[in-house]
């Protein structure tokens, strides 16, 4: 038992410190490259590596993501549960919604960094931006064909590929439906299994309904942490589904219940902006200075205008603001 405990502690240090030379995407086959003392342990506990990476993800979210108790809880459980499932029935599909600067891209980055050695730079993590990759409505049929080929080719190369679609609110309606078969409950399509892939959609669509709920709680004097997924999910999914300017407008992905979780990101308050500024200074290896963080937070715009409750840009402009003060 003592030896097992030592091995657990050692593996925890290796994985969470980033020292382990993991194979992309991270899998239990890492045992081949580990020290001989750990090889037998990993063989005995084949899912132990996923356990440590899920703990790292949970700690990262707790330490670096501010004001998002709902999103943090959903992401942790959804991603960890999926990665621990050796035989998922379908790909994991997450749709992240909220106002700008609330942490959607940041969370996608953390997921990638915790499960792929090269993080967002991994050849198995693919990011599509609507205005860059799909700019012209007249070429939507070409985009559909290209998108199908890109996904099929990459999943053929790596079953555990991750696909991030940014700016879904700017995507041409109907385009995302072209990948519906890859997100459905199929063992294989043309000899390729997509069940271990992860698809993440990022969108500002639905942000208004999230803000309204948060504002209603604030006006009623209720604690922000009392807001639950049940207070947001139904209104959020309907808002996104019926938004004609969104890439998810009347999409079969929602109609056929292929989106596993609609993840709401709440608007950030003044205190969260201060936390973001302090964390950014620490990330730059600077001594966190509360006076600077407070000054940065005060310089931002807040709404509603009279109450100044929520940051208009969330934490998005923190980096450039800090450049001025430090």
Automatic annotation (TrEMBL):
Spans through the membrane: 32-52
Any single biological process term in GO: protein localization to nucleus
UniProt entry tagged with the keyword Transmembrane helix: yes
Residue span(s) of domain AAA+ ATPase: 90-231
Top-level taxon in the UniProt lineage: Eukaryota
Gene Ontology cellular component annotations, sorted alphabetically: endoplasmic reticulum lumen; nuclear envelope
Binding site for ATP: 98-105
Coiled coil regions, renumbered to chain: none
Signal peptide extent: 1-22
Keyword Glycoprotein recorded: yes
Cited SUPFAM superfamilies: P-loop containing nucleoside triphosphate hydrolases
GO MF term (any one): ATP hydrolysis activity
Subcellular location: Endoplasmic reticulum lumen
Keyword tags: ATP-binding, Endoplasmic reticulum, Glycoprotein, Membrane, Nucleotide-binding, Signal, Transmembrane, Transmembrane helix
Family according to the record: Belongs to the ClpA/ClpB family. Torsin subfamily.
Name of this protein: Torsin
């Amino acid at each position: 038992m003592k030896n097992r405990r030592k091995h657990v502690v050692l593996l925890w240090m290796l994985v969470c410190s980033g020292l382990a030379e993991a194979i992309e995407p991270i899998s239990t086959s890492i045992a081949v490259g580990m020290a001989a003392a750990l090889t037998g342990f990993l063989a005995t506990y084949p899912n132990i590596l996923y356990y440590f990476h899920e703990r790292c993800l949970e700690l990262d979210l707790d330490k670096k993501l501010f004001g998002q108790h709902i999103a943090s809880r959903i992401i942790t459980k959804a991603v960890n549960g999926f990665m621990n499932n050796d035989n998922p029935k379908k790909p994991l599909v997450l749709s992240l919604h909220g106002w700008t600067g609330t942490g959607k891209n940041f969370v996608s980055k953390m997921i990638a960094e915790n499960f792929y050695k090269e993080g967002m730079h991994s050849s198995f993590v693919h990011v599509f931006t609507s205005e860059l990759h799909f700019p012209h409505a007249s070429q939507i049929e070409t985009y559909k064909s290209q998108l199908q080929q890109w996904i099929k080719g990459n999943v053929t190369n790596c079953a555990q590929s991750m696909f991030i679609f940014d700016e879904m609110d700017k995507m041409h309606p109907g385009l995302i439906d072209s990948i519906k078969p890859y997100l459905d409950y199929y063992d294989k399509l043309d000899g390729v299994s997509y069940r271990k892939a992860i698809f993440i959609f990022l969108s500002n669509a639905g942000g208004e309904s999230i803000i309204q709920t948060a504002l209603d709680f604030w006006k009623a004097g209720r604690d922000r942490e009392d807001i639950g997924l049940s207070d947001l999910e139904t209104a959020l999914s309907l808002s996104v589904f019926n938004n004609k300017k969104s890439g998810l407008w009347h999409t079969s992905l929602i109609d056929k219940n292929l989106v596993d979780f609609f993840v709401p990101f709440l608007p950030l308050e003044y205190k969260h902006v201060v936390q973001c500024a302090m964390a950014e200074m620490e990330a730059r290896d600077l001594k966190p200075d509360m006076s600077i963080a407070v000054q940065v937070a005060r310089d931002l715009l807040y709404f509603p205008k009279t109450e100044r409750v929520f940051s208009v840009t969330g934490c998005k402009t923190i980096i450039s603001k800090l450049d001025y003060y430090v």
